Amino acid sequence: MHSSRLIRSALLFAAAGLFGCATTALRPGDAVPFPAGYRDWHHVKSMVIQPGHPLHDAFGGIHHVYANAAARAGLASGRYADGAVFAFDLLEAKDGGNAIEEGPRKVLGVMHRSATAYRDTGGWGFAGFTGDGANVVKDMRAQCYLCHEAQQAHGYVFTQARP
Ligand code: HEC
After folding, report:
1. 12: phi then psi, degrees, rounded to nearest 5
2. Mutate which of 38, 41, 49, 65 to test ligand 1's pocket (most atoms within 8 Å of Cβ)?
3. Which ligand 1 atom lies nearest to the CA of residue 157?
4. Other beta carbons less than 10 A from residue 99's beta carbon
5. Domains in the chain with CATH codes
6. Is-above-0.70 flag for pTM?
7. How far is the C-alpha of 113 from the C-alpha of 91, rounded, in Å?
8. Per-position pLDDT tens, the chain of length 163
9. Is there a contact between 135 and 109 (Cβ–Cβ < 8 Å)?
10. Ligand 1 atom showing the smallest separation from residue 126 Cα
């Protein structure tokens, strides 16, 4: 049983990489796929979280939020179709010389929409990929969803579109 799930995840991962998208239908228990190609998606916004901010311990640094086409449509309509993916690209913020620059990547946060696969977390699968591809999210609900739940009226998404 276990190995067949592993093989399926590996195939999904490979498919997402090959086709540069991650719209394969996911099932309960499936891992959140790596968002291959996200640097080519729509850039929604950026933010610098500095020491003193309540989220600094977890999310200090500079982050950029990217949306794939389905997520971008969801930002406009307020409804997210399966296959919508947001990437939260968190890098260290190097402050010096009156400029704040990007440093090395800390983590790549992901929200991947599948109403059936991720029913317990608002229909979103949460993941946090580090440089070597490991996923730091072991408990989507405790580590991610319980904070995003505050945005239930906006589909559990904090980011808002701007022109
Ligand atoms: C303490 C609250 C909190 C927790 C916990 C949290 N987030 Fe978020 N998340 C936010 C906020 C606030 C934003 C909006 C950031 C901005 O406006 O740039 C956000 C934005 C995001 C986005 C972009 C889409 C959106 O909703 O705006 C993704 C993807 C994301 N988070 C993933 C994660 C993942 C993965 C985890 C778990 C490792 C996580 N988040 C845990 C507060 C949280």
Report:
1. -60, -45
2. 65
3. 26
4. 7
5. 2-154 (3.50.70.20)
6. yes
7. 24
8. 455 555 555 555 554 444 444 456 899 999 999 999 999 999 999 999 999 999 999 999 999 999 999 999 999 999 999 999 999 999 999 999 999 999 999 999 999 999 999 999 999 999 999 988 899 999 999 999 999 999 999 999 999 998 8
9. no
10. 35
For 19-48, b/e burial (b = at least 16 CB within 10 A) is eebbbbebeeebbbbbbbbbeebeebeeee
Q: Specify the ligand 1 atom closest to the Cα of 86.
A: 29
Q: Which two tokens stand for residue 16?
A: 């997402």
- CA neighbor of 82 nearest in space, from 92, 70, 94, 96: 70
Q: What is the residue type of 138?
A: K
| Beta-carbon contacts of residue 88 (< 8 Å; ≥ 6 apart) | 63, 64, 65, 108, 109, 110, 111
